[in-house]
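Dear Dr. H.,

I hope your travels went smoothly. While you were away I took the liberty of generating a structure for the chain from your last submission, since the lab meeting agenda had it listed for discussion. I wanted you to have the full record in hand beforehand rather than looking at slides cold. The sequence, exactly as received, is reproduced here:
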Amino acid sequence: MGEASVDQAVMGFLAAIKVGDVCHGTVAAVSRSTMSVTLDGFAAQPLGVVGPLDRPWGRSFSDVAVVGRRVSGEVVAVDPDEGRVRMSMAATENPELWAFLKQLRRGVTLTGTVASIESFGVFVALDDGPEHPVYPGVGFITYPELSWSHFEAGSDVVQVGQRVTCEFLQFDTWNGEARLSLRATQPDPFQAFADGITAGRTLRGRVTKVFPFAVFVAVGAGVEGCVPLRELGAAPGVPPEDVVRVGEEISVTVKEIDRERRRLTLSRRSV
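The corresponding predicted structure, in token form, is as follows:
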């Protein structure tokens, strides 16, 4: 069979596979953390791939990644361009969890209890649905989705044991989690701030961050603006930290308000 014919056969085979299908096959090759699978019905080349986070939870990779072993996995992605089907063995071994997560729709409101606060986000034990076999909770909130306001640590916003109401964003098939947003259930202070502000207005604010390229200034509750280096009013070559310091109160002028991107551009030159 020529290369073109093989490509056509691959495309035809993949066209019949959909996300959510369960595929079966035989492990054809194993790398450090990934295994390739020859799928039933297409023996010409391995089209299935099981990644490091798609293997069964609680079992070592070496236990399941054995050439010649029969495996099954739920399809979580189909890539016709690469000729690959990403399979999740974790999905087939945790059908109740996967069924719960797949029926959720973006924007739906979920309630639960904060189970753990980590440096990378917050786990939430949801009131509805099963427990997670590995993590403290099925729900997970990344730090950007915790609050509209600036904070230093997750514990500044929530506490373990606290009841929370969040908006569902998406099903994270890598970790078998419901990605949530706590801030989406709260009013956006930037939009309220923008309602009463126009370009040219002078404001007082506190410097929160100083970078080589810009200075950030808090000008309202949950609202920070950016003063680009060119708008800082410093002499050429003078670093920003020699002009202002974190915690210092300064006067700035509103240059531009971008509601869609939630960006506030400020200037210190014209004050």
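Two observations you may find useful: Residues 96-185 form a domain with the OB fold (Dihydrolipoamide Acetyltransferase, E2P) fold (CATH 2.40.50.140). The chain is about 15% helix and 40% strand.

With kind regards,
E. W.
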